[in-house]
């Protein structure tokens, strides 16, 4: 139990797959599924506060319309699946305020591309979830369902909390530093950040041209995979890269890497990852020690610089017009970014490109790298959203990454591990993540 007396959440089962199966088989209508989720939201939302906008009447009406679609329609592969939309992503039928008072009541003219694809596939858009201010670091109102006294992480705070609490099976998030991986880790669920550009960003509020990536929060790898298969870009679907070449019967190979910041992880996190490696060595999966190139040591600082520079370019003029409506933490980011020279920004980008060129060699012979997702358990308090330290370098490199709820901290709270794949190997990363989750369940059996 958590300190609040609520059951601790964990990513068990595939509630999204269960919904899709129920609708396709005719066991439940979309209206019944919608009402069940609305009932859960009504019961838990006063404590967790995952939503910034929710219209139950509109959800019920949309569900009734979806019940007109023949079950099992191949054109509607997500028929009846409730999905939450991070409030950084435009919806034409609901306000989209980007977590900022500057956009209070804002109504976009059209859906973001990813929302349109979800609707076309039969998904049931179920409310807008809380984001931090412009997806930066000033927290919203959301609490962690595992422990209401702790942050759910950010910036995809509401999406992670809603999924972890069982309010929704799947929700959209975005990541510019660690905003999918970190909240997934803190809330004990799966967070998938695909390769940069694999999901269309049209209609997603831009804060960093180089870093912004649309991702998914779910309770299982299978649910994330099912939604990703629908919303991914055609270029992502056809890239043909599936990881290193190996024999048909070869075991999954996971490289355990220690980034330069390794010692900044909590001792329990480091010990948990080391123990995981030793357990894998006794199984059918292969665990290898993988050294990161020395140039990678500078990537975290480079990501901070690139993010500050691009966020300042995107937001400074807009925020300076009404500074009283902007948090001090964001204003500090904008000031810091404005002080960065073009030469320093270019040097950071050059480092990123140089390290990207090393990725084929780094991933040669392994399906994925396993690194920390977070420093440790979700910090106590709601004044901050935690440190994205272990996500920054991989976001700058634009690699796909996924957080898996495989560890527990000293207080019994969830701590994710991060699997990272080579560029454009999203399918292989998801397959490897599923293999690791299956192994973890089998290993836990008495």
What does it look like?
The structure is a single chain. This protein is an alpha/beta fold and 446 residues long. The protein has a domain at 15-237: Alpha-Beta Complex (Amidase signature (AS) enzymes). 38% of the residues lie in helices and 13% in strands. It contains 15 helices and eleven strands. The protein has an eleven-stranded mixed β-sheet, sandwiched between helices. Helix 4 (113-120) links the parallel strand 2 and strand 3. Helix 2 runs antiparallel to helix 3, helix 10 packs across helix 11 and helix 10 (299-320) crosses helix 12 (342-356). The longest helix is centred in the C-terminal third of the chain and has 22 residues, at 299-320. The protein is globular and about 55 Å long. It starts with 14 loop residues before the first helix and ends with a helix.
Supply database-style keywords:
446 residues; alpha/beta; disordered N terminus; globular
Question: Residue ranges: pLDDT <50 for 5 or more in a row?
Answer: 1-10
What's the CATH H-level homologous superfamily of the domain at 15-237?
A: Amidase signature (AS) domain
Q: Give a count of the beta strands, DSSP E runs of length 2 or more.
A: 11
CATH architecture of the domain at 15-237: Alpha-Beta Complex
Mean pLDDT equals 94
Give the CATH class of the domain at 15-237: Alpha Beta
Beta-strand percentage? 5-15%
What would you call the structural class? alpha/beta
Q: Distance between termini?
A: 22 Å
